[in-house]
Design brief:
4-stranded mixed β-sheet; 3 domains; Immunoglobulin-like; 347 residues; mainly beta; 5-stranded mixed β-sheet
């Protein structure tokens, strides 16, 4: 190397010994890196892919390249993909639909820690955290909704034997945005007038979705038709306050057995002993008619006519004296009597 004054080039000094100029990259030993504040995230299992592009960290010097890595608690890494191909847009993708282990029965929180690293030789690092909540789709009707079926109109005659009706249609599950089978079966509860059935007047078998009816309560004739319901919920989430629950309602009409009887017929009657106008009482005892149901229906007996062989009887229904409950029997198996007295003046 030769040094001289600009205007006196002949006056120069030369140095023959070599020396080295070292150019140092400031990113070999950078000053610092500061991670950005990260927002908490939520993902519901079976949902479409959710994306979160995190804000970039701040390096000093500002041109130093940043390397991003992450860790996460638990097994949530199964649902995470982290892409840093473009260092200006480090991006998390959340996607999972294999099972419900990551959410549990409702939801589970995980901590995702992002580490920012700079420095080619001596490194500087900083970490930032965000909470990832992985949620169960079965407790959110936005993702899983029970769809009810129509219930048939039913009829039952009070006092009849137990009547079993056809099974009502199964309810179905509607999924959004993707179908799956993670939520299990639908559970059914049968109700009569919004109260769980108690075997009178209705029965319900959950496993077969079958209603039956049996009752001798004549008060059921009031306010017909009555209402019955099926309440459906997810069997594995019946205690959940948020999971889908639906109620279907139908009509049941209770019919009067005294109108739609199971059997009502007259019986043979026994004639009273003959009398020769003695003036003594002639007593006829009724053999009750046959009625089913005899304990639920009131039978009224009445005199239709009184006749003799010559069809000129002077005795009519008004002349008869009744005893017991002949004309207003509270029970079909209780007979009554008709008493008439005739003497020679009636001849």
């Amino acid at each position: 190397m030769t040094a001289y004054h600009t205007n006196y080039s002949d006056n120069s000094v030369s140095l023959n010994d070599p020396f080295t100029i070292t150019v140092v990259d400031p990113c070999d030993s950078p000053t610092s890196v500061v991670g950005a504040s990260l927002a908490d995230q939520e993902y519901t299992i079976t949902d479409d892919k959710q994306t979160y592009t995190i804000p970039v960290s701040t390096p000093v010097p500002s041109w130093c390249a940043i390397t991003y890595t992450y860790t996460v608690t638990g097994n949530a890494g199964q649902a995470i993909t982290f892409t840093t191909t473009d260092p200006t847009t480090p991006t998390f993708d959340f996607l999972f639909s294999s099972n419900l282990d990551l959410s549990g029965s409702d939801s589970t929180d995980y901590t995702v820690t992002v580490t920012s690293t700079i420095g080619n030789v001596d490194t500087q690092t900083d970490t930032s955290d965000f909470k990832l909540t992985i949620k169960n789709p079965c407790v959110d009707p936005t993702f899983v909704q029970i769809v009810k079926s129509d219930l048939a109109s039913l009829e039952y005659i009070i006092g009849d034997n137990k009547k079993t009706f056809a099974a009502h249609p199964a309810f179905t599950l509607s999924y959004s945005p993707n179908d799956h089978t993670l939520c299990g079966d639908i559970a059914y509860v049968g109700q009569f007038e919004n109260v769980a059935v108690d075997d009178d007047p209705m029965f319900y078998t959950t496993s077969t979705r079958v209603f039956a009816a049996e009752s001798r309560d004549m008060d059921l004739l009031e306010n017909n038709p009555r209402k019955y319901q099926v309440v459906a919920s997810l069997a594995n989430y019946q205690s959940s306050a948020t999971a889908s629950t639906v109620t279907a309602e139908g009509d049941i009409t209770f019919k009067d057995p005294c109108v739609d009887t199971f059997g009502f017929s007259s019986t043979s009657q026994t004639n009273p002993a003959s009398d020769n106008y003695s003036g003594n009482n002639i007593v006829f005892t009724l053999t009750p008619f046959t009625l089913d149901p005899s304990d639920l229906c009131t039978v009224t007996y009445s005199c239709k006519s009184v006749s003799n062989v010559s069809n000129d009887s002077s005795i009519g229904c008004d002349n008869l004296v009744t005893a017991g409950k002949l004309f207003d029997s509270a029970s079909a198996d209780v007979g009554g009597t008709i008493t008439v007295s005739v003497d020679t003046e009636d001849y």
